[in-house]
Predict the structure.
Amino acid sequence: MSTPPVVPQDESVPPLPAGIPLHPAGSPAAAHTAGRRALPNLLIIAVALAVGVLGGTGAIPLDRNGLLRFALGMVVGLNLHIVAYWLLGPLSGVATVWTSLGVGRWLGHTTRRGRLVVFRLLPLIPFIACQVIVGRPGLRRRMWACAAATLLAEAVASAALVAAGGPAASVGWGLAAVTLLVLAAQPGRVTSPAWRLFRLPFGDNDQALAEWVHDPATLAAARAACAGRIDLARAALDAAPAAPGDASPRRLAMEASLALCEGRCDAAARTAAELRERSHAPELRRGALQLYACAVADGIAAGHWRAADAMPYFDAALAALRAESKAAALRGTDLAAMEALFRGRPQQAVKLATLAAANAATVHVRARALLTLAAAHTAAGHPELSRAPRARAAALSPTLHTTR
């Protein structure tokens, strides 16, 4: 048996025996991560202060109805922002991979024009679109214009409601508050509204954008994989092969994801390691590390690697993920359930896998979580309970390779 490939070291941090870069507590990277985690708390405080100031000046009544209208304005503003970006997407150089109607637990799904549409429990946010950047002439100008147009539409709507006075004013102030919050969130992240507006037009940002851009084949593969059609995703990539050594970061990410879905754990781990080395944006590096951890987990589950040999790699990958971003470390994966399963806690694995399946973003992610749920039931001594989730996984994604 082979051992998982070592993820390249970050030169700024000491190596771990398993070869996974992990920023220790107190390092600059850890402090930077703590700063990112503190930002949402600061934004919440800012909203509370804004409500207090507006209430003190009489702009909004600080009673139940006034606060409810303010909250309604925030919900309306968030949805306006999402819809505006979706409508302007074809003009701004982005494309939709999948959409979600509602938020929360998975209710069902369909496919429209080759794109996944998921139905969820709560209509708090009626519509969410997963959009990715595609190569278009004048991409920087297009992205800036879309962000500016969206901000202008939100500002005009807010001003009109506030100017109308009465109950509408509270809604308008809520819309204005969420507009400012969205604009202030993650200003350093490439593709965020603040980055598009204030940083994209200046300096050399072509390299920063390049690692986010999807070529047509990668976009087609992403849409097919999200809908559970691993065979169609592979056909899309094979129809337009990248030259050796010239694969873009997004193509590498798609290759790693497909290798994982096809049961080629070693190829998935090696491609994910290469992707992490070539990526610069923290979000993309974290995604590469998630793929690496999933590949190692699948290799252990399939018996491709001995648990005694591969577990240090898996543990170090999870430690690195949690050090980089505690809130989002394992989000969107069944890694927490796999960890519990490897640690001999099958009942906990059942709960975590159930949660992962209920909140999965796409069909193939949900199918993987259901397979983990089946394995957890078997490990818990209830093999009869594993048949239903395994059958649902097969129905969702018939060409997904099963390693559980």
